[in-house]
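Model: Ready when you are.
Researcher: Fold this.
Model:
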Amino acid sequence: MINLFQPQVGDAELAAVAEVFDSKWLGHGPRTKAFEAAFAERLGVAPEHVLFLNSGTAGLFLALELLDLAEGDEVVIPSMSFLAAANAIVSAGATPVFCDVDPRTMNPTWEHIEAAVTPRTKAVVVLHYGGCPGDVVEIAERCRERGLALVEDSACSVDSRVDGRAAGSFGDLAMWSFDAAKVLVTGDGGMLYVRDAERAQRARRLAYHGLVQATGLAYAKVSHRWWELEVPEVGRRVIGNDLTAAIGLVQLGRLPEFTGRRKEIVALYDRELADVEGLKTPPPLPDGHESSHYFYWVQMDARIRDQVASDLLAADVYTTFRYAPLHKVPTYKSDAELPGTEQASGETLCLPIHPGLADADVLTVVAELRKAIETRGRDLARETTDVPAAG
C-alpha cells in the first residue's frame, strides 16, 4: 500500500529517547524547555511565548479558552477545517460561524471571512490548507482593525512562510500539530504560540491544572511548604513531556530535509499530471509564499471523484479528502450556504505525499490516477450520451 502519510523516524530519534531513559526524567523537563526554545527561535519569538503540549487539539482548546468567550459570542472559521477547531469553539462556550473558501486553494480570503462577521463576532480561526499560508497577512491586518482575535490553525504549516515570516506568527495565537501523520512528528504532541505575554503566562497555568507554580522538587528548593496549592482558576493537564520533546528536537533539525523532499514530490506530481485531461493540480504559490506541502490535492469532475478514489484504493494507493465541510455536520447546527466549499468538497482528492515516497512510488500513483481518470471519464461520457432527450 502506498500510504497517504508516513512518519520519518529512525536511529537519531531512538538515540534521543534512549538519552531520556538514561536520565530517569521522562516528564515535563529540560528537553521540553529545549524544544520550546528551538521552536521559538524558528518563529522569531521569545521562548516564554511558546508551549509544548500533548496534542495540537489541546492547543486549539487552550487557545479558544484564553479568549474568554461567552454564550452568544461567535467565532468565524472556514467550513473546510479539521473538526477539532469547531469543537474547541463550542467547548469555549461560543458558536462557530462557517465561512466559505476559494475552491482552488481551499483557503479563505478576507472577503469570505467578512461575509460571516456579525456584531457578535469575537474571533477568527484560519487553517493554512495543506501548508499554504493563504491570505493570512491581509486577514491578520483586517482582524486587528476590527478588534477581532486571530487564531492560526497551523497544524499543516510547520515550515510555511510569507516573505520569510513563519506562518503562525501573524495572529494572536497559533498551534501546530506533531501527530504521527504530520510533517514533524513526535507521536502525539503540539505547540502553542501566544503573542501576549500575560496571556502566555496564563496559558502555562491552564496547561498544568491552573497551578501558579509546580509542587515538586524544583519548587521545593525555593519555597517553604512547597506542596501547598495556589490555583486561581481551574485548568487541566495537557503539557508535553521529555520523551516526545526529545523526538521533536531531532525532527526539528531534520525539517529542511523533510520539506525539501516534499517539494520534490510536488514538482514531480505537477510535471507528470500536467497533461491529464479533466484534472487540475494545485494552483502555484504566490510570490514570497513557502509551503510545508502537507497535502497534494487534485480536482476533477465531482461525478467521478469517489469512483477514482475507490479505483486507486483497489490498486493499493490510499487517497482521501481533507477536510469534510463542517457546516454539513448536524452537531454544529449551521444553515450556511457556501458554494466554494461545496464545489471543492465534491471535486478534491488528496494524494500520497511524504518523504518516504520514492520517485517510483509517485510515478505509480500517477499511472493509477491516469488510468482511473480515463476509465471513469469514458464511463461518464457514455452515460451522458445514453441519456434520452427530454420530451
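Researcher: Now this one.
Model:
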Amino acid sequence: MAIMQKIGQNRYLQSIMRGMMMVLPATIMSSFATLLKVLPIQAYQDFILKHNLAQFFDIPINFTNNFLAVLVAFSVAYTLAKSFDVDGFTAGLISMISFFILTPYELGEMGPLGQAYSIPNTWLGAMGLFTGIMVAFISARTFVWITKKGLIIRMPDGVPEFISKSFSALVPGLVILTSFTVLSATITINELGSVHQIIYGIIQAPLTDLGAGIGSVIIVSLVAQTLWFFGLHGHAITLGIVAPIWFAMDAAQLAAFSAGAPTPNITGFAFFMTYTAGDLLPLAFMLAFMARSQRYKTLGRISLPPAVFTIGEPMAYGVPLVMNFALAIPYILLNSVLLAAAYYLTLAGVLPAVAGVMTPAGMPVIVSGFMQGSWKIAAFQFVALFIRFAGWYFFFKIADRIAFAEETEEERQALIAEQKRAREQLESEPSSEVSA
C-alpha cells in the first residue's frame, strides 16, 4: 500500500493525469463531432453528402483530437509547473512553442508575403503525444529550476503583474527555446529524421504494443480493484501509469473512425471505461430491493441513483466494499472477466472495436456503449449487467446474511438491555416507598 500510495502521489504521473483532464473538453468535442459525422442513419448521411457538410465536422476534429499532442504539451507543463508553485501559463506556453520547434515543417512557394510554411499534422495528434509529454517535462522542469534559482529579471514593485511575469519569463524562455532549437538542428543536420520519429520509434510504439494486449488491461483492472479493496483510489494510481499509452491509442482510434478507415486498436482508455461501466449497478439494485438488512436497504436506495451514473464511491465506503472479504472476489475479479470477454468477442468480429470516444464523466452504462459507435457495444453492456448480477448474487447473499444477523443481534441485545432497565426500575419502586 505504501508503494502504491507513493506511485499515486508521484508529481509527474499526477501532472500527466491532470494535464489529460485539462484537455478533456477538447477530446469530448472531437468525440461528438465524430459521432455526428458518422451517425449511421442513411437519410442523415445522404443529407451530409448532398450538402458537403462532412468538411465542417472535420474542422473541430482536426483542431482537437488531431491536435492533441500540442494541447498536451501545454497542459502537462502547466500542471507540472503549478505543482512547484510557479507560473503555469508561461511554462505551458514555452513548452508548446518548444514542441513546434521540434516538429518538422515543409517549405512552400514564395508568395507576396514571404516564404510559406506548412506543418503536416502527422505529429500533432496521437503519434506526437509522447513527444509532447517529454517536452512538457523537460521544459517545465527547466523553467522551474531557473525560476527557483532566481535567475530571472525582476521588476520593481508597482509594475503590473502581467508585465512583471513577461520579464521574469525572458531568461528561462530563451534558455529553453534555444536548447530545443539546437537539438532540432543537430538531429536534422545529421539526417537522423526528427525528435518525433526517434521518440515514437524507441518509446511510444513499443509501449503501445505492450499496452495494447488484453494481458496489460487485465493487470491494470486487477491491480486497480485490489487497491480499491484496500481503501486506495485504484484507478487514480493505475490509470495514471498507463494514461499516455492508452490516450494515444484512443486518439489514433478516433482519427481512424472519423476518417472511415480501419481502427488500429482494440483496447485503450475508451475500451477499459466502456466495459467496466456499470460495475456496481447490479449490486446497488440488490441492496435496494433484495436485502433483508435495513442498513443495506437504506444504503442501496441512496446509492442506486449515483450507480446509474457510474459513481461507486457511496458503496465502496458505505457497504463497505473496502476490506470486506465477503464481497472481495466479485469486486476484484468481475471487471477482468468482462474485459477479457469483450476483447475476444471484438477479436472474433462479434463486437466492433470501440471508436475511442472520450465520454463525459458519469455517462450511464448502455448510453456510453452507443456513443462508442455501435448498438452492439451497448447490447453487450446490457448483457454484462446480468452477468455482473449473477457474479455478485451469491456473495451479496452472504454479506446480507451477516449484516442481518448483526442487526438482529443488536436488536436482541437492545431488547435485553431495555428489559433489564425496566426490571431494575420496578425493583427499585417498593424500596422507595418504604424509605418514604
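Researcher: Key takeaway?
Model: The mean pLDDT is 86.
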